[in-house]
Amino acid sequence: MLTGRFVKLSCAVVAVVAMLCGCDLLDCTGTSSVKLRFQFNDGSGNECYLADSLTVLAAGTDSILLNRKMMAREVELPMSYIQDADTFILRHAGEDYVEVDSLIVGKDNFQYFESPDCPTRIMHTINGVRCTNEWVDSVKILERKVGFEGAIHLIIYITE
Q1: Across the chain, what does the average pLDDT equal?
Q2: Per-residue b or e along 118-151, where b marks 16 or more CB atoms closer than 10 Å to that residue's CB
Q3: Which residue among 17, 102, 103, 136 is least enclosed by CB atoms within 10 Å?
């Protein structure tokens, strides 16, 4: 027959083991970051690599989000947490030319809560995109929800 003291001790051990295992087994998406992903396509709609370097700046700040990436085909960029729109300055440069375009991404921001053990994350829903059409011809939205899934959100069609 089990004594009350043994039952209490057993319950305490089980509770501690469950808490320790629960923390180890919890896979917070905090290891993944929320980023806007886009790819470049040529005028025919085929994926393409930019011939020279691409630098991306966050408008209104001194932040360089991507610095002189060569042969860019896909790009991942962080998005702001509070603003209703993010403006990215895309600078495509070679030896004898510099092309600058602005990409304005309108969005709704919402909090994502997974568990008390995980940080709250900010996710986004894209509600519109426009560009200044200097070297970017047009932009197509593929996936409006910007989260952890890693999908391509935008297709940027470049002029040739």
Answers
A1: 84
A2: eeebebbebeebebeeebbbebeeeeeebbeeee
A3: 17
**Is 19 a residue whose pLDDT tops 80?**
no
In whole angstroms, give the CA distance from residue 126 to residue 34. Answer: 13
| CATH assignment at residue 139 | 2.60.40
Identify which has the larger pLDDT, 123 or 6: 123
Among the ranges given (14-18, 68-72, 109-113), the one the predictor scored with the smallest mean pLDDT: 14-18
| HSE toward the beta carbon, residue 148, CA cutoff 13 A | 14
Is 11 among the domain residues? no
